[in-house]
Amino acid sequence: MGGLDLTHFVVLAAILFALGLFCVVTRRNALGILMGIELILNSANVNYVAFARYAQTGYDGQIFAIFVIMLAAAEAAIGLAIVLGIYRSFETIDVEATDRLRG
Amino acid sequence: MSVTTVAFYVIAVITAGSALGVALGNNIVYSAFALMGTLLGVAATFVLLGSDFLGVIQLLVYVGGILVLTLFAVMLTHRIADVHVSNRAVGRPLGAVLAGAVFVYLVRVALRAHWVVRAPAAPGPTIYGVGDAFLTQYLLPFEVASVVLLAALIGAVVVSRKEVRA
């Protein structure tokens, strides 16, 4: 494999996680926050698959990654529906402007 | 350096660079397209790790499904007037400190920990093994997942429909 090992992939996942976290805590656009969550989920998936390849036999890591992708799809559908609902009632999706619970 | 290593670094630069675009872009549309680069890079990483089926799933579900859905939401909630800074960000220094601290900690763990590694198996088709595991060991989670997806589908329709009071 020419010096390519588990650490390379774990560090790549750490980069993705840190950028996703940065995205989630600094963005004020609800869609930007959802994109940050996608980055974090992808970093977890990279870790799952890397450990599945380098640290164990079998397909457990890949199965978990498939479940994560499935839940990300469900989360995206519900999250974007909620964002559209917020936009309908507030005319904006800036999360600092949408602080009213009363409809 | 072998071809695999070079491929990894190219893929990693594309993935991390696009993720930087997602995190720092001022325009939500640019962020969405940068997210496409990241998702494609992650799919390529999966293929590099010998998980061909997972790479295809990543392409189909993430790039073909979630990203298109996100772009639809961007188009529907995006006013042309605020095209310049449509992806506002606040508290960037503090966020950078937090993300940087988490990143340093994670890299420290990745470099210091004594991972129990074994020689990676020769890459081959994984579809058979994944399908077998889904229909034997992971049958119950598989069925629960289908119920979750059905609930999410109905929930999304209920949340986003127009309310008609009879």
Helices and strands in order:
The complex is a heterodimer of chains A (103) and B (166).
Chain A: H1 6-26, H2 30-54, H3 60-90
Chain B: H1 3-24, H2 28-48, H3 52-77, H4 92-112, H5 127-135, H6 139-160
Helix pairs in contact in B: 1-2, 2-3
**What is the 3D form of chain B?**
globular
What pair of chains forms the biggest interface?
A-B, 73 and 83 residues
Alpha plus pi helix count of chain B: 6
Output the helix-strand order of chain B: HHHHHH
CATH secondary-structure class of chain B: Mainly Alpha
SSE order of chain A: HHH
Major sheet details of chain A: none
How many β strands of chain B by DSSP?
A: 0
Q: Which radius of gyration of chain B do the C-alpha atoms yield?
A: 20 Å
Multimeric organization? heterodimer
Judged by helices, strands and strand pairing, the structural class of chain A is mainly alpha
What are the low-pLDDT stretches of chain B, counting only 5+ consecutive residues below 50? none
Tally of discrete structural domains of chain B: 1
Uncertain residue segments of chain A: none
CA-based gyration radius of chain A: 17 Å
Question: Which short descriptors sum up this protein?
Answer:
heterodimer; A: 103 residues; mainly alpha; Helix Hairpins; 0% strand; B: 166 residues; Four Helix Bundle (Hemerythrin (Met), subunit A); 6 helices
Structural summary, described in words:
The complex is a heterodimer of chains A (103) and B (166). With 103 residues, chain A is mainly alpha-helical. In chain A, 75% of the residues lie in helices and 0% in strands. Chain A has helices at 6-26, 30-54, 60-90. The radius of gyration of chain A is 17 Å and the shape is elongated. With 166 residues, chain B is mainly α. Helices cover 73% and strands 0% of the residues of chain B. Chain B contains six helices and no strands. In chain B, α1 runs antiparallel to α2 and α2 (28-48) packs antiparallel against α3 (52-77). Chain B is globular. The chains are: A mainly alpha (103), B mainly alpha (166). At the A-B interface, α1, α2 and α3 of A face α1, α2, α3, α4 and α5 of B.
